[in-house]
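FYI - complex with PRP, inputs then prediction.
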Amino acid sequence: MDETQIEGDLVNILFTEEQIHARLRELAVEIERDYEGKDILMVGVLRGAVMVMADLARSFGRHVEMDWMAISSYGSGTKSSGVVRILKDLDTDITGRHVLVVEDIIDTGLTLSWLVSNLSSRGPASVEICTLLRKPEALQMAVDVKYVGHDIPNEFVVGYGLDYDERYRNLRCIGTLAPHVYS
Ligand code: PRP
């Protein structure tokens, strides 16, 4: 892929592909240590988490299972309400399972807060969260996140699964979008 074209829409590259992979490998080591002797069910949240899931899962030297959920805010402009609906539920019964939710970014924390409470009501052995990025300044709800790749400023970032109007997800790096693109 010729990345130069879409990379030209970025004002700043926050993390290169190499930096992302290196951080995910570190997180994988930490997770493997914490889950020694336990089976992990990784739950990815579509669509943004696809890249993180693919690379994190392949950083493990052990078996992991993967499943997916697709969720969406109710209606438009209600994202801040934290009211979420399930577009695609898990195929797996998580009763007694160790669930590791995999996310690309935690912004306000509302989605994850809802998701953790939803998953916890299904009787899992544990539910933890791993996110590549988190914006501490944007948090509206405390979410207990066990594994965080990087805390970042409250800026609009794209790439590596993160989109602007469904574009830029396939960018290998993560960067800040130039204002001319969305103004
Ligand atoms: C992003 C991200 C999280 C959510 C975080 O998904 O993947 O699921 O937003 O935001 P919050 O902390 O403010 O709730 P998005 O709704 O953009 O959908 P996508 O994954 O399909 O891009």
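The pocket of PRP is lined by residues 45-49, 103-112, 163 (CB under 6 Å). The mean pLDDT is 92.
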